[in-house]
Amino acid sequence: MSKAVSTKTGDAQSGAPLFKSDALHLAFCVVGVVGSLLLYGVLQERIMTIPYGEGANADVFKYSLFLVFCNRAVAATIAAITLVVKGRTDELRPVAPILSYASVSLSNVVATTCQYEALKHVTFAVQTLGKCAKMFPVMIWGYFILKKRYTMRDVALAVCITGGCFIFFMTGNTISRVAQDKNSSMFGVLLMMGYLSADGYTSTFQQKMFKGYQMTSYNQVLYVSLCSLALSSFGLVTSGQLSSTLAFISRHPDALSAMILLSCASSCGSLFISYTIKSFGALVFAIIMTTRQFLSILLSSLFFGSPLTGGQWAGTGVVVAALYYQSATKDSHAKDNAKEALPKNAAGRVSLSGVGTANSGSGDRARDEEVAAAQPLLAGQQR
Q1: Torsion angle of C-alpha atoms 135, 117, 265, 248, degrees rounded to 10
Q2: Which of 48-57, 88-97, 125-134 is least confident?
Q3: Are 72 and 211 in contact (CB under 8 A)?
């Protein structure tokens, strides 16, 4: 486990530590990440699957694009405020062409909309586990866009995770409580496949933008969110959802409060994610997120009365075990890949000549953490 970088630094002037121990610092990060995203998951299921009102006045919220609009409005506001507070006003200008931001934005809007829409057809547990199956789409996009190569370990993990999801789907109820058709779960699975494809493109193209332009995570979040606001607004107006959404909110004002809280929980979770990655690294963060996914399914089962069968718990166990294994072996796997990537001299020994400082371990690690910290701010993949 990497040591927290800020526990011993604290105030740059006084040298006072922010936390008395690494354990307390880690507990703060765990509570922040898990608490925020558990609240996000509960509110997401509440808004999309539990009717507002009673009797003949009961309504189910159906307008996913408005949730996307709210999420991106809060994300853009936080990114802009952060840049101003940190004195980085020069980063308020776009670094990359607007079309590059818009490309990430479009796939992000599609992914998030599919995520919310899926809850109309499949249970929250299916949606949560389905997100774990993103390895195959990410590997495919990485192969074509970033020219990455993947090992048999990567393929085996993807197969295990996808297999666990298949076991879950085949051994118990997967239909949402608000589904209109008993065969609706298949359409929900198609929506999750759309989510995985779009989300895989989002994260892969984000990495390409970070490598191609000198930009910070907040600059990318700001302009991708602004583009998403424009896209979601266009969709709301042209589809007629805007007037229907406003009419729904006028009938059920408490729904708007839940939507705003959902967006705040999402953004707070993103900030805690960024802070955790920078303090403890991507490995600790991955373990925390795997635990959070299991807790989300458990909480949904208890809080909303959606019990799982033994087979579904077994499928969940397969997915969670594979994710824990992936997290536990990430460092050694990355080191092996780094050794293979280093140039060799005529004697077959690893040569460091021509390997500049910008591409050294610390530089790559900082850039990887920047990318990892930015992704949760934009997409739903970590939630």
Answers
A1: 170
A2: 125-134
A3: no
